[in-house]
Amino acid sequence: MIVCHCNRLTDHDIRRAVDELITDVPLQMITPRTVYNSLSKPARCGGCFPLALKVITEHLAARMAEAGTPKRAQPVVADRAALAAE
Ligand code: FES
Q1: What share of the chain is helix, strand, coil (3-state, %, to 5)?
Q2: 3-state secondary structure of 66
Q3: What is the pTM of this model?
Q4: For the chain, how many structural domains are there in total?
Q5: How many angstroms separate the alpha carbon of residue 76 from the centre of ligand 1?
Q6: Residue to probe by mutation, ligand 1, list 48, 51, 54, most atoms within 8 Å of CB
Q7: What residues make up the domain containing 49?
Q8: Where does residue 32 rank: exposed (0-12), middle (13-18), buried (19+ CB within 10 A)?
Q9: Which residue has the CA at smallest separation from atom 2 of ligand 1?
């Protein structure tokens, strides 16, 4: 799935970049800008940032679940649509 149309980044590109980032520096904050910088892609319009953040957060949560991290220590995946409906 294309996440960033300006840079033609897919969800796979983002997940791979997150894996490399946390391998290099495990305790760092990973944002869309961090990921794009690691891929040498500029953040242009920023319209993709909410979806990129969702991909990053879901991937980190999945990795932490695989590693057996307690659920209370896993990142919260914010679903804006669900929050807006509340
Ligand atoms: S769609 Fe990603 S920077 Fe524009």
Answers
A1: 55, 5, 40
A2: helix
A3: 0.80
A4: 1
A5: 23
A6: 48
A7: 2-85
A8: buried
A9: 4
Tell how far the Cα of 57 is from the centroid of ligand 1, in angstroms: 18
3-state SS, residue 38: helix
Q: Determine the residue type at 86.
A: E
Residue 63 CB partners (closer than 8 Å, separation 6+)? 19, 22
Count, in order, helices (H) and strands (E) of the chain.
4, 2
Question: How far are the Cα atoms of 51, 80, 83 from residue 86, in angstroms, in the given order?
Answer: 20, 10, 5
Q: How far apart are alpha carbons 44 and 77 in whole angstroms?
A: 24
Pocket of ligand 1 (CB under 6 A): 4-7, 43-48
Comparing 78 with 5, which gets the higher pLDDT? Answer: 5
- List pLDDT tens digits, range 27-78: 788 999 999 999 999 989 999 999 999 999 999 989 888 888 777 666 655 5
